[in-house]
């Protein structure tokens, strides 16, 4: 089987992380997110982690070349020999170009970009409706999965609340930032002929069936 390298792409709130995790488990491939990489390197106090921490402590964005180095370090691991899934990376066209150069040195390239999207008003409703229990962390949704008693967790009886960054106005700002920075990757991947598009408004299993069919078509 050819090595499969997948990029999962889409705005916050479309469920790409859930889909990436399901496919990674089915294909027995590592599910790699930059957030997890940062936390791992910071915890282990690696050279790359300390460099990233320096920028973060100064309130600066971690430079593209350092982010790419973190990813390249991870994909060099033995468990990535058959392939891997990149979740939320690359975030910009320059990041993809830098990654492609590194992959070319190994005679490899991204197999496909799996793009999940939904109308912005749907995404805002999804995210702004999320509620989290302050005590146990259980999740609910004000519209789609409300607790039996408003403001009270069904699991432990603790108080539920809306996270500050789930506020509708902040979600809208996050989506604008996504459209400006990450949005250009969509036509970029489409022009390369590797973009696979999915309507994220459906149910998780319905979307996953379509995703798995597309992924299986890449195995040859």
Briefly say what this structure is.
By secondary structure, the protein is of the alpha/beta class.
Structural overview:
This protein is α/β, with parallel strands linked by helices and 220 residues long. It has a domain at 4-119 and 181-216: 3-Layer(aba) Sandwich (Rossmann fold). It is 46% helix and 15% strand. It has nine helices and eight strands. Helix 2 crosses helix 4 (64-75) and helix 4 (64-75) packs across helix 5 (93-104). The longest helix is centred in the C-terminal third of the chain and has 14 residues, at 168-181. The radius of gyration is 19 Å and the shape is globular.
Series of H and E elements: EHEHHHEHEHEEEHHEH
Helix content: 40-55%
Number of strands: 8
Reading off the top of the CATH hierarchy, the class of the domain at 4-119 and 181-216 is best stated as Alpha Beta
Apparent shape: globular
Strand order across the largest sheet: 2-3-1-4-8
